[in-house]
Amino acid sequence: MPEPARLTGSRDAKEGFHMPDRSIRTEEAANYPSGVGLLSDPGLNKGTAFTEAEREAFGLRGLLPPRAITQVEQLMRVLGNLRRKANDIEKYIFLVSLQDRNETLFYRLVMDHLDEMMPIIYTPTVGQACQEYGHIFRRPRGLFISAEDRGRVADVLRNWPKREVRMIVVTDGERILGLGDLGANGMGIPVGKLALYVACGGVHPTACLPVTLDVGTENAALLADPLYLGLPQRRLRGAAYDELLDEFIVAAQEVFPKAVIQFEDFGNANAFRLLHRYRDRVCCFSDDIQGTAAMALAGVYSALRVTGGRLADQSFVFLGAGEAGLGIGDLIVTALIADGMPEADARRRCWFVDSKGLIVRGRTDLVPHKRPYAHEGEFAPDLLAAVERLKPNAIIGVSGTAGVFTRPVVEAMARFNERPIIFALSNPTSKSECTAEEAYAWSNGRALFASGSPFAPVLVNGRTYVPGQGNNAYIFPAIGLGVIAAEAKRITDEMFFVAAKSLANQVTAADLDLGRLYPPFTRIRTVSAAIATAVAELAYERGLAQHPRPADLSAFVRSRMYEPVYRSYVEWSDG
Fold first, then answer.
1. Which is the catalytic residue, given 46, 91, 162, 193?
2. What does pTM read for this prediction?
3. Which of 32, 92, 107, 122 is catalytic?
4. Rounded distance between C-alpha atoms, residue 285 and residue 493, angstroms
5. Which structural domains are found in the chain, ordered by start?
6. What rounded mean pLDDT belongs to the chain?
């Protein structure tokens, strides 16, 4: 008779973002589930891919159909079932259900078909999923910390079953994509973001923790909806809100001391304030402010390779002066200062149009975070007037308002520039400032275009253009991977500057010939590894890294990237 079973390679359920290659001896196997319990654990379950030996060892015989199949064969089934779904929200529900029962298979599917899966698990479909969250809810994923949990947030965090958390994405649901206040329904965003940390950046699934701070909502439709799952109350504000945030940050450091905290989709009133409050105290960042900025700057660098211009010679008009717009402006200023331009001159390269018109010094209605970009000049009541007066090289839309890059605006940009830079970055697709087809058609094919959500290739004047998607997924998973690998104490603006340059450097001449300002997502893992290595290198150079420096940093970073392949749970020997 053979020896009892021995688990191999299954420590991934307990080890955080990296799976060590080692065995667990027989006496330790009792700590792992068997039978229905094993099939119910999405991190350990292999479904019909459990081998005959594994079925015998773990009490699975009879609980599965008798034929054991490979992961490749499983992928054939799930992909076929997915593609038969009637619409994208049904596909989203199918994928969430797959993630809840077989995490490894879910990530294999996403990574092997990223172009097809990303618009479903993240923007634009995740926006609809958040809007309908209470109506399509199946089972909880992540942690909900509500205003009623004040005084016991650490206890709530300890309810999370994994201890080696390295990445926390937290939202309060006030500004979900361009859809506004969705309250507790916003949980779809941190869940989706962390799926991209795994698929694009290789952060291990067990290292990821989605958190929603449910402090109420101002959304009247949700408050009236009997199926809304959040607190049915108006938003917590002022000192009580700040106390809950402080308690969460302190508790997260206590319970998960090595975790990075990403602030996601907070309203403008809180997003800047929270970043400035915590950035020098904990390892944290705001993707809406800093990640979007790095993605946009990388696209500008790529566009300048086509135009042959220098960043110092460009001028920018932003439509939208919230987190994303001001974050991009700040990083452009950082890049110009790095090139030797005085800060005041660098800021004058960036002009902003908000809902009331061009931001200029004479306006008396400006909130503090807009004032650094209030320049001397004549007021313009709208974007077209601002473009006609300023004649910028680039317009960058982060307004959350569809169709505001009108034909007159695009045609004006094409009059002033041989190759106008037009970035319509608002998400989801329904909020994009213009479509790819409009940008190319109205500029006679000369626009250098990028969008926040994906658009199909466009045929103009006999030439096919493949629009680049300016997706933060190029940035935040790689930032997370690099910071985790180096165990950096803090995340700095310089890391996002380095990430932008690294991303732009990976755009090929062939990409640019197609009109693409970003690498295709088929190369995302390679792109992420390169960016993460650059970020980790900077952490070591600046004395922020706590992990001993490896001899080959690039190889070390790549070795930390999760691969969704089934491990063998059982080895038999003749002892």
1. 193
2. 0.91
3. 122
4. 9
5. 7-69 (no CATH), 72-282 (3.40.50.10380), 290-472 (3.40.50.720)
6. 92
